[in-house]
Amino acid sequence: MPLPQLNVYRHDHTTRALITLAGEIDLVTTPLVYAALAGCLRDGIRTTDVDLTAVTFCDVSGLNAFLTASRLGADAGMTLQLHHPPPSVARVIEMTGSGDLLHERHVLRPPSHRVPAVVGGAP
Questions:
Q1: How many angstroms separate the CA atoms of 94 and 108, rounded?
Q2: If you ran DSSP here, which 8-state letter would residue 100 be given?
Q3: Which band of pLDDT confidence, cut at 50, 70 and 90, is reported for residue 19?
Q4: Does this model's pTM top 0.90?
Q5: What is the number of other CB atoms lying within 10 angstroms of the CB of residue 119?
Q6: CA–CA distance, 16 with 84 (Å, rounded to integer)
Q7: Is 114 contained in some domain?
Q8: Were 65 and a residue from 17, 33, 44, 76 both cysteine, which residue would form a disulfide, CB within 3.0 to 4.6 Å?
């Protein structure tokens, strides 16, 4: 059985924690994500920031882990925010309507098909 391809680092600052994830978040590694997020909740952390800069892949099981942790955390008074997701992860988060998890809004809009106005008044 191959080792999970996800590294999880947790750094606490009083009532705030930063969890840095590096690698792939999938069905095999999602329990590591749950454990890190549940640990913050168990330890009384009020704000959990998750840095996704080094995440190379995230499937629906990873997104479910974030949504579940966010819901359970909100019930306990904890805030969960995701930071710096790669474009593919940001797109999945926005497409599923769970963009409120993102600290910085990464709204992906389709390109505009409008023709730009002509400058200088040429017909």
A1: 7
A2: G
A3: very high
A4: no
A5: 6
A6: 18
A7: no
A8: 33
The number of folded domains in the chain is 1
C-alpha of 26 from chain center:
13
> Bridge-partner residues for 21, per DSSP?
8
Does residue 123 sit within a domain? no
Residue 83 maps to which CATH number? 3.30.750.24
Own/partner pairs, 75-79, CB within 8 angstroms, 24+ separation: 76/41, 77/46, 78/40, 78/41, 78/45, 78/46, 78/47, 78/48, 79/46, 79/47, 79/48
SS3 45: coil
Whether 32 is in a domain gets the answer yes
